């Protein structure tokens, strides 16, 4: 096991078992449907297509590297979450996973709500017509300007993250002559990653207000006294890339315990509970994610059971999947530039992007898969490492992967499951230009976020 630090806290990191690639797959040309977007197939000529469009044509038309996003898959995942939770719950897509105006429109059409955590995400959401009342505003250090804008626009809820913010939001709402609906984000002492969770008494992290030591109860006490805010519920987000539901079980138990204490102390039953996001996806064939309907059933049962035991009315549940909706819908298309065999070790395959378009491998030791997509090959498998073009030896996209031994410069390779936290975390390191996002659907391809240009770079540099 290995885990590296993340600026947003360890809850956002992944812990992945090592040795996924102990043996080469039986067929290097096969595409595991689990890790590829819905409409991806390999044709009889060996070329991989998405939405009926060969990747060779996409590369010609849009260049490489490029994120290719399957709109059909995005919509069907969004719809599956919406349907699974039904009309008595709310699904908020976590915009930080990947946000663009096209995505906002798809979410709107599919009936999902939207989480934002900065003024930039809020501006994107509003500019694409997401109704403000369907937006939730998150973040552990929202600026007064961001709070003022959010309240002024009429966002559906602000998720309060600290004692100071409770007062700050209440004060700004009052200045604006409004009463803002809010939730309080608490940390319940559950750390969940992938296949395990740890229940702890304390949470050593920057997000939320600890349940431990009566701090969350005190936050509720204060929030209930302030005129500028209306406390509608409690929020908990326990981790990311989670497959095991038992962490949610402990979290729900603890949140409901707080709801019960609030009822006993204040005589109020808060109407909502938000269990956050963090549901896992398949990055490699070794991952086995749950379907939205299983997750919805499990979460609803847990909350209902806990509330019955506490003799509470079951609150309205909301969830915030980001990765689970957008992650599997996109792959990154790269062109191979150099192939460097290191005797007795492995072959380094350099592509025309790298850590600037996918930082997750460097940041979290994340594992990815990769396939040759511009042709099929009958060559032997070779142990490869896919690396980028940056001046950094940690510039790795896929740490261990098998690719055909006849791989050559000019071949196109694709890394699946890069829809979440890749474009949204992309950088300009080495003044490399950020790739476009190309949405494909039913034989059509269109750019939804264009490729950065040198002009873009120079426009920011005012000399
Ligand atoms: C990051 C985050 C999410 C989404 O997490 P995923 O792993 O993408 O599902 C949801 N809610 C909150 C509060 C988050 O910080």
Automatic annotation (TrEMBL):
UniProt keyword terms in alphabetical order: Amino-acid biosynthesis, Decarboxylase, Lyase, Lysine biosynthesis, Pyridoxal phosphate
Keyword Lyase recorded: yes
Pathway: Amino-acid biosynthesis; L-lysine biosynthesis via DAP pathway; L-lysine from DL-2,6-diaminopimelate: step 1/1
UniProt EC number: 4.1.1.20
Sites where the protein binds pyridoxal 5'-phosphate: 278, 320-323, 421
Signal peptide: none
InterPro entries cross-referenced by the UniProt entry: Ala_racemase/Decarboxylase_C (IPR009006), DAP_deCOOHase_LysA (IPR002986), De-COase2_C (IPR022643), De-COase2_CS (IPR022657), De-COase2_N (IPR022644), De-COase2_pyr-phos_BS (IPR022653), Orn/DAP/Arg_de-COase (IPR000183), PLP-binding_barrel (IPR029066)
Residues noted as binding substrate in the record, renumbered to the chain: 323, 360, 364, 392, 421
Designated name of the protein: Diaminopimelate decarboxylase
Source organism of the structure: Streptomyces tricolor
Lineage: Bacteria, Bacillati, Actinomycetota, Actinomycetes, Kitasatosporales
Gene transcribed to yield this protein: lysA
């Amino acid at each position: 096991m290995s885990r590296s630090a993340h600026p947003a806290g360890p809850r956002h990191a992944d812990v992945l078992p090592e040795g996924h690639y102990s043996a080469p797959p039986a067929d290097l040309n096969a595409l595991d449907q689990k890790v590829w977007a819905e409409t991806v197939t390999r044709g009889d000529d060996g070329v991989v297509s998405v939405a009926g469009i060969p990747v060779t044509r996409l590369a010609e038309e849009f260049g490489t590297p490029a994120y290719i996003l399957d709109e059909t898959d995005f919509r069907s995942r969004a719809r599956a979450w919406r349907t699974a939770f039904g009309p008595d719950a709310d699904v908020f897509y976590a915009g930080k996973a990947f946000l663009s105006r096209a995505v906002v429109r798809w979410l709107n059409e599919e009936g999902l709500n939207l989480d934002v955590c900065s003024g930039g995400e809020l501006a994107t959401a509003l500019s694409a017509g997401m109704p403000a009342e369907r937006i939730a505003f998150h973040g552990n250090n929202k600026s007064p300007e961001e709070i003022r804008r959010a309240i002024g626009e009429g966002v559906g809820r602000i998720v309060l993250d600290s004692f100071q913010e409770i007062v700050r939001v209440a004060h700004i709402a009052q200045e604006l002559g409004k009463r803002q609906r809010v939730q309080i984000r608490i940390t319940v002492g559950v750390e969940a990653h992938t296949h395990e969770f740890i229940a702890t008494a304390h949470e050593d992290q920057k997000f939320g207000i600890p349940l431990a030591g009566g701090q969350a109860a005190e936050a509720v006490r204060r929030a209930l006294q302030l005129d500028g805010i209306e406390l509608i519920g409690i929020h908990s987000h326990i981790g990311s890339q989670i497959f095991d539901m038992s962490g949610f079980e402990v979290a729900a138990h603890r949140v409901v315990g707080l709801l019960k204490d609030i009822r006993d102390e204040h005589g109020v039953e808060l109407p909502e509970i938000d269990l956050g996001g963090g549901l896992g996806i398949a990055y490699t064939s070794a991952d086995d994610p749950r379907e939205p309907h299983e997750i919805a059933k499990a979460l609803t049962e847990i909350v209902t059971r806990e509330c019955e035991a506490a003799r509470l009315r079951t609150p309205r549940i909301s969830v915030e999947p980001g990765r689970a909706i957008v992650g599997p819908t996109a792959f990154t298309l790269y062109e191979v530039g150099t192939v460097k065999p290191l005797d007795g070790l492995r072959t380094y395959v350099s592509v025309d992007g790298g850590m600037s378009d996918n930082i997750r491998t460097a940041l979290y030791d994340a594992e990815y898969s990769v396939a040759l997509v511009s042709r099929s090959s009958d060559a032997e498998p070779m142990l490869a490492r896919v690396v980028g073009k940056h001046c950094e030896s940690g510039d790795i996209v896929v740490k261990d992967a098998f690719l055909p031994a006849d791989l050559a410069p000019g071949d196109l390779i694709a890394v699946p499951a890069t829809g979440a936290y890749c474009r949204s975390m992309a950088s300009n390191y080495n003044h490399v230009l950020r790739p476009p996002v190309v949405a494909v659907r039913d034989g059509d391809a269109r750019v939804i976020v264009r490729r950065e240009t040198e002009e873009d770079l120079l426009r920011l540099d005012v000399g």
